[in-house]
Amino acid sequence: MSSNPTPRTRIVREPQRAVYDRDTINQILDEAFLCHVGFAVNSNSDFQPYVIPTSYGRNGDMLYIHGSAASRMLRNLDQGVPVCITVTLLDGLVVARSVFNHSMNYRSVVILGTATLVDDPAEKLAALRALSEHIIPGRWDDARQPNEKELKQTSVLRLPINEFSAKVRVGPAVDDEEDYAFPTWAGVIPLEMTVGAAIRDDRCERELPAYLKTYSRRKEKMG
Amino acid sequence: MSSNPTPRTRIVREPQRAVYDRDTINQILDEAFLCHVGFAVNSNSDFQPYVIPTSYGRNGDMLYIHGSAASRMLRNLDQGVPVCITVTLLDGLVVARSVFNHSMNYRSVVILGTATLVDDPAEKLAALRALSEHIIPGRWDDARQPNEKELKQTSVLRLPINEFSAKVRVGPAVDDEEDYAFPTWAGVIPLEMTVGAAIRDDRCERELPAYLKTYSRRKEKMG
């Protein structure tokens, strides 16, 4: 399934790296769980952008973020300010012969739209479950689920995944033909977010559950 | 060395995680090399924020980013639009007994300011060298350095690291006292950006240089 880019999401730079199909976007969104949310705050006559890292969940074509009602982000977002949510996965350093052709292998998604507050209690609970299951599948049913007081303290925002684009770079360095003779190493240094040995809490005596023993973010190898 | 936060950079949410001292900010900036740049574009009567991932370099109290003059980001930034540059390092998933107290261990820096175009050729070259050495120390002198044509095709922007804050969370899960009896595993799942085995280019016959053999982002272990 593919989607046509709007003038706002059409890739300007390196258009050969552009991806507009929803399956690829969903793969990237499902492998990552950290996004950077951009919003602008009107300060005097100017607009100051803010970029805040936060986790997210996906439910079909809807992205959900959450936070405390006290945060600067949510104080501003619930007024209906336009947002940009960007998700980036780093896959490697591309080491070329020329400094100019150095690059990175990466997969990134940019989603534009207006985030709105989730009021309906059922949608809010489903969104929080989607967020939890997105980060650690299996955790929701194994943890103490939110009570009324906690639900009140948590704001959830939804952003429809309608206006989006992705950029993907894979593969080796591409040098100018005359540079291939330059006497230096060239290639790719792979980068990956890896999971270390679980650190059990001092006040916990349980064995590590299966869903944490096999925890990994990598869903599919690209490039 | 510490710096007072402005009303715009003072941490609102979880203020106990706030860090305003320049040494900590520089440590975070030096371990990461990917930032998310936020800027707002005036579209009709509204301001649409964009958040773009890119690499950066640091030279003292100055942050440098670069890109093609053709990019949407640089087309807008060189008009002097205010920016927010955010850098985030993920250190772990904090697995609490309650869904509500789940968290992440992370270190993030937010810098606000106005990015300006670097015109001076000497500063531009020094900035590109800082960028290259920030990502792969030792690479600049081992690669074919930029020529006049490439320098013309590359725009460099500087952002003074003057108005900033950081947020740092380290350590174990913190649950409500009554939840410690809840029968589930709790602890921390460490996450780290790790380096895979170098993939030599098909057209390269050189040995991997020492500065790539020992390549790692982790400068210092925190929590």
CATH architecture of chain A: Roll
Could you say which structural class the secondary elements and strand pairing of chain A correspond to?
A: alpha+beta
Task: Please identify the oligomeric state.
Answer: homodimer
CATH superfamily of chain A: Electron Transport, Fmn-binding Protein, Chain A
Number of helices of chain A: 5
Question: In the CATH hierarchy, what is the class of chain A?
Answer: Mainly Beta
Q: Could you give a short account of the major beta sheet of chain A?
A: 7 strands, antiparallel
Which percent range describes the beta-strand content of chain A? 35-45%
Structure write-up:
The structure is a homodimer of 223-residue chains. With 223 residues, chain A is an alpha+beta fold. Chain A has a single domain, classed as Pnp Oxidase, Chain A (Roll), CATH 2.30.110.10. Chain A is built from five helices and twelve strands. The first copy, chain A, has helices spanning 22-31, 72-77, 121-135, 148-153, 210-213, and strands at residues 18-19, 34-43, 46-55, 57-59, 62-68, 82-95, 103-114, 116-117, 154-160, 163-169, 187-195, 199-200. In chain A, the strands form two sheets. In chain A, strands 1, 2, 3, 6, 7, 10 and 11 form a seven-stranded antiparallel sheet that branches. The first copy, chain A, has a four-stranded antiparallel sheet with strand order 4-5-9-8. In chain A, strand 6 and strand 7 (103-114) form a beta hairpin. The longest helix of chain A is centred in the middle third of the chain and has 15 residues, at 121-135. Chain A is globular and about 65 Å long. The two termini of chain A are 22 Å apart. The mean pLDDT of chain A is 91.
